[in-house]
Design brief:
α2 crosses α3. The relative contact order is 0.08. The protein contains 11 helices and 11 strands. The protein has about 250 residues and is of the alpha+beta class. The chain folds into 3 domains: about 60 residues, 434 Repressor (Amino-terminal Domain) (Orthogonal Bundle), CATH 1.10.260; about 50 residues, no CATH class; about 100 residues, no CATH class. A 5-stranded antiparallel sheet has the order 5-8-9-10-11. A two-stranded antiparallel ribbon has the order 1-2. A two-stranded antiparallel ribbon has the order 3-4.
Length: about 250
């Protein structure tokens, strides 16, 4: 689709008039009309406002003239997978696993490869094939080529280490010692827990990125421990494979 078609479709899907969209963007209705007839194209600043308002990338607004891939892990990107800056705007260079709220979540290429290999194995790759592919592809991506400039001098890794120590200090019975935490998107781990009063509660935001891990219970019997943490909480639960029969073990405000 062209830009005029994209804007028209997004506006009508949202159920707003040209006047209402113009008011949101501080432009005239005539300006919106000209975009939708193809007489003009929004300028860069207006494209940013449209992107933020509709929750789509500028690339989408322009009719997808380029193929977006995460410049950290190489994942193909669509609007649902793009990471966000601190101000909530989309960053079209990264996925939400590698870049969350303005923070780069990987400082070790080996750690990233370990995570990617698990997912690629589900797509039919052998571990050897997956590792070989990732080792060849990652160094060519912008994040790793400019790592010395983009890195935070170990601040995020120090935060993760502190968080790991904090979780391990809880001494949850049956939970193995945690060595690593990886980025996890809320919608992938937002399990429903039944509270003692019978209500069903989900604790995380589907659209946010957290740190967490999954480990087999030391008690065996096939149950798994799930650990999830944000800036203000730690959540520990157990469940069967694929998240079945989840039970909340601990929810702690930080």
């Amino acid at each position: 689709m062209t830009t005029k078609d994209v804007i028209y479709e997004l506006r009508t899907q949202k159920g707003i008039s040209q006047d209402e969209l113009a008011e949101k963007l501080f432009v005239t209705r005539q300006a919106v009309s000209r975009w939708e007839t193809g007489d003009t194209v929004p300028n860069t600043e207006t494209l940013k406002m449209l992107s933020n308002y509709f929750g789509v990338s500028i690339n989408t607004l322009l009719g997808e003239p380029r193929k977006l891939i995460c410049q950290c892990c190489g994942m193909p990107l669509d609007d649902t997978l793009i990471g966000k800056n601190k101000d909530g705007t989309l960053n079209e260079d990264y996925c939400k696993w590698c870049y969350a709220d303005g923070t780069y979540t990987y400082s070790s290429m080996d750690d990233l490869i370990d995570v990617c290999v698990v997912h690629m194995a589900k797509e039919g790759f052998t571990e050897e094939q997956a590792r070989e592919y990732m080792k060849g592809m990652l160094p060519g991506l912008d994040y790793w080529k400019r790592y010395e400039v983009l890195s935070d001098d170990g601040q995020f890794e120090a935060y993760k280490r502190k968080l790991i120590d904090e979780i391990n200090s809880l001494s949850v019975e049956g939970l193995p010692k945690i060595e690593k935490l990886i980025p996890l998107v809320g919608k992938d781990v937002n399990l429903p827990y039944r509270l003692p009063n019978g209500s069903i509660v989900r604790f995380v935001d589907d659209d946010k990125t957290y740190l967490g891990t999954q480990l087999p219970s030391e008690f065996g019997e096939g149950r798994l421990f799930g650990v999830l943490a944000g800036m203000d909480f730690i959540l520990i639960s157990t469940y069967e494979p694929n998240g079945a029969d989840p039970e909340l073990v601990l929810y702690k405000h930080r």
